[in-house]
Amino acid sequence: MIGPHPQVKNFLFANGFSGHGLQQAPAVGKALAELIVHGGYRTVDCSAFGYSRVAEGRAFRELNVI
């Protein structure tokens, strides 16, 4: 999960990484920094990984698993 919690103000998720977390952490950090500073994602759109998608039960199909 990445992004703001819908009910807790100033609470941002950046968790749920697998073994690829070390590779993904810089991009997630940049995305969350943009969210904090600019109020939205600018270069890395992490909206697909937001809390609302999980809460609504919308699946995310991963097409790049090897």
Write structural notes for this entry.
The protein has 2 helices and 2 strands; from the N terminus they run E-E-H-H. With 66 residues, it is an alpha+beta fold. The chain has one domain (2-55). It has a two-stranded antiparallel sheet. A hairpin with a 7-residue loop joins strand 1 (2-4) and strand 2.
Kindly summarize this structure in a few lines:
Helix content is 35%, strand content 9%. It has 66 residues and is of the alpha+beta class. It has one domain (2-55).
Keywords:
single chain, two-stranded antiparallel sheet, alpha+beta, 66 residues
Number of helices: 2
Order of helices and strands: EEHH
| Overall body shape | globular
Average the pLDDT over all residues and give the rounded result: 89
Query: Looking across the biggest beta sheet, what order are the strands in?
Result: 1-2
Q: What structural class results from the helix and strand content?
A: alpha+beta
- Major sheet summary line: 2 strands, antiparallel
**What does the radius of gyration come to?**
12 Å
- When the domains are counted, the total is 1
Low-confidence stretches: none
Oligomer: single chain
Secondary structure: number of strands:
2
Proportion of helical residues: 25-40%
Q: How much of the residues is beta strand, in percent?
A: 5-15%
Could you give the distance between the termini?
A: 21 Å
